[in-house]
Input
Amino acid sequence: ELTREQQNLVNYILEAHLKQGFPADMSNKLLREQSSAEENFLLLTEMATTHVQVIVEFTKKLPGFQALDHEDQIALLKGSAVEAMFLRSAQIFNEKVPEDHTEQLEDKIRNSGISQEYITPMFNFYKSMGDLKMCREEYALLTAITILSPDRQYVRNRESVEKLQEPLIEVLQKICKRQHPGNPQHFACLLGRLTELRTFNHQHAEMLMSWKVN
Amino acid sequence: PASNLGLEDIIRKALMGNIET
Output
């Protein structure tokens, strides 16, 4: 059972997470059928930029975040932006985007000049996230936990960040037990996905580099 | 890398509330 305080925390973070919309003009661009690899690439960069802005807005609402040292705020966001983006993409891919958009999005990604060695792990990750059948609360909390990781590079006051992250991990564990009572490994699986997410930081940097070279 | 600089720039601006989302 969550305490009242914990339930309020979950509701608050979920609401902040739900406020992240999918811009209408992007849906239209996604649905436009005829597009070149270059156009697809440009659309993806536009989506990525919007993603980052949306992640920052969500992060600003996390309890205690704005009280952190300003440069630590930057370090946390820089360190987690790519991971948060992939988490959000996984959720959109598995949950919010209707069938057609998912196919269109996948098509655009596969035809954007990105090398197969980056595409395959991306979609494998989306599918493995889908297999977990996470609820919205889990996605919201996992995103917050990812962003509030005290071990990011350049974070100076790690203890302050830990104090913000710990209560969220506690709550997530309870929610996992509640939502997935038949699967006691579920929480551990979620944490395992966080480790998988970290591999995307390196992948993403490599992918951008190879894009530029191409 | 230039890509990292771009990311930080977006983050700083968004933190200051200079971007409409």
Notes: The radius of gyration of chain A is 17 Å.
